[in-house]
From TrEMBL:
PANTHER family: NADH-SPECIFIC METHYLGLYOXAL REDUCTASE-RELATED, OXIDOREDUCTASE YDHF. Transmembrane segments: none annotated. Keywords: NADP, Oxidoreductase. Belongs to the aldo/keto reductase family. Aldo/keto reductase 2 subfamily. This is Aldo/keto reductase. Residues 17-296 form the NADP-dependent oxidoreductase domain. GO terms for molecular function: oxidoreductase activity. It holds the Pfam family Aldo_ket_red.
Length: 305
């Protein structure tokens, strides 16, 4: 699989990341087969969060991969913290406690990447900085990033945080592409021109922050998968036509569309199906033409001015 450097760091990561949010839908043998296949296919970057399955997903993963010192060397582990029941919490105490819990559940001594999961309205950048410094000094976390943050929120953090923010995990799919369409429709009177994210896409490109699109196959907020959905007939016709041309599945083309963007994104896929996992990974070898990329963009109902 092709790789990219994560943000401004020297960490080389596969272009497709494997998400762990749904691993608790598998039994033990299925989970072992799934992570083994991912490793065989070069998909050794795993995304977790302390809240997935209430912590169970991280435990299931570390058991399935038979975590050991030698396994740990072959994989890149990312996890997230900062979401609590009914609130968000970027306090120093919560971040430090969360990381200890994550490391215990993943059965490892360090995370390659820690992301702050969702913006905390009560964030104190100085407290985050103290937590990050402590985690870096102790060797518990090597790189830091955020998720679902806009440019000003990142700038606010950076007022105190000295480590580079290497990643920003954001919802992005062909059918959830407002960060792209608002850039295309700048200053128009239409709905697509509404800038909901403070131009986060350009900001991340300018500051070498890798965008990790989450839910790359969903429309709405986990409403369903757009592939094969009768809600998107034109999009599916267009994707199927391009898939046939390349001799791949529609799943491959949906990921290839994200990878074609010059921001050099790293989609985080959520499938727990081995064939679909392989199809997502195949996207690493496909470079869509400009014509194909725009045809898919338009077929989803995204507009050009
Ligand atoms: N930072 C955040 O706030 C945030 C939020 C949500 C998720 N995430 C991360 O992003 C990852 C992906 O999220 P997600 O699971 O919602 O993403 P997704 O890849 O868009 O959705 C995967 C789901 O769609 C199903 N699916 C059905 N048909 C499919 C097809 N043709 N191709 C691919 N999937 C198909 C999968 O079922 P099968 O298993 O049967 O294939 C699976 O249940 C998570 O694991 C998590 O790591 C982050």
């Amino acid at each position: 699989m092709k790789t990219i450097k994560l943000g401004s760091s020297s960490l080389e990561v596969p272009v497709v990341a494997v998400g762990g949010m749904r691993i608790n839908s598998l039994d033990k043998a299925e989970a072992e087969r799934f992570v083994q296949t991912a490793l065989e296919e070069g998909a050794n970057f795993f995304d977790h969060a302390d809240i997935y399955g209430g912590g169970a997903c991280e435990e299931i993963f570390s058991e399935a991969i038979h975590m050991s010192a030698s396994v740990r060397e072959q994989i890149i582990l990312q996890s997230k913290c900062g979401i609590r029941q009914g609130m968000f919490d970027f306090s120093k105490e919560h971040i430090l406690n969360s990381v200890d819990g994550i490391l215990k559940r993943l059965n490892t001594e360090y995370l390659d990447v820690l992301l702050l999961h969702r913006p905390d309205a009560l964030v104190e950048p100085e407290e985050v900085a103290e937590a990050f410094d402590q985690l870096e000094r102790s060797g518990k976390v090597r790189h830091f990033g955020v998720s679902n943050q806009n440019p000003m929120q990142i700038q606010l953090l950076k007022k105190a945080v000295k480590q580079p923010i290497v990643a920003n995990q954001l919802q992005l799919s062909i059918t959830n592409a407002t960060m792209i369409s608002s850039g295309i429709n700048v200053n128009m009177e239409n709905e697509s021109a509404v800038n909901r994210d403070g131009s986060v896409l350009d900001f991340c490109r300018l500051h070498d922050i890798t965008i990790q699109p989450w839910s790359p196959f969903q429309y709405g907020f986990f409403e369903g998968v757009f592939l094969g959905s009768d809600k998107f007939p034109e999009l599916n016709r267009q994707i199927d036509e391009i898939a046939e041309k390349y001799g791949v599945s529609n799943t491959t083309i949906a990921i290839a569309w994200l990878l074609r963007h010059p921001a050099r994104m790293q989609p985080v896929i959520g499938t727990m199906n081995i064939d679909r996992l392989k199809d997502c990974i195949k996207a690493s070898d496909i470079v869509l033409t400009r014509e194909e990329w725009y045809a898919i963009y338009r077929a989803a109902g995204n507009i050009l001015p």
